[in-house]
Amino acid sequence: GGSVAIFGALRRLALALPRPAAVRSRPGRVWRWRNLLVSFAHSVLAGLWALFSLWHSPELLSDIQDGYSVSGHLLVCFSSGYFIHDTLDIIFNHQSRSSWEYLVHHAMAISAFVSLIITGRFLVAAVLLLLVEVSNIFLTVRMLLKMSNVPSPVLYEANKYINLVMYFAFRLAPQAYLTWYFLRYVEVQGQGAFLTANLLLLDAMILMYFSRLLRSDFFPSLRKGSAGRDVDGEKFLID
Asked: Which of 60, 182, 51 is closest to 120 using CA atoms?
């Protein structure tokens, strides 16, 4: 509850911040710009928090199922609050149709995280998954740069390659390791079966997003049907 309130306050703060001309001139972009700023704040806080938790207690990695730390537990609660807040923000601002993929992702994350908070098991797996927020820092910067039409392409180009490296290091690598671990060591029943199913569905979503990213930033000639597409209402940039 406290986390939801924190992100509600950050959303109000984002309303007061100045917006680039390219955002002000397109009313459909205003909500998405503000929403991405809140998402950026969560990525910075949660990503650094996950790194600190694993650095401070590296022994957690030896017991993914039953390892426990207060820091990791609070991190999962904190991120659950963000996902709840973002879900409400999408629904109350009538963005459900354009952001349905995010709603599916958030429903998966909230249900999985609540089960971890209640049982106290697999918290280390959640902390490993939240390393993805380090990657999301640069992914969100990419989307903000595209929306603001920054005149200098150098910043976008630099972020493009950093984003790719971070995607591999903090999104694909932890996800692949946890998928291997769950399929090999976790019992396929009860909470284990539920989390494994969530993990496999998340694998499919991550690979889909990765293919979009590659087509957009590295193989633009492979894009289909994006020319002239108005994506002002979409939280995730299809192009």
From this structure: 60
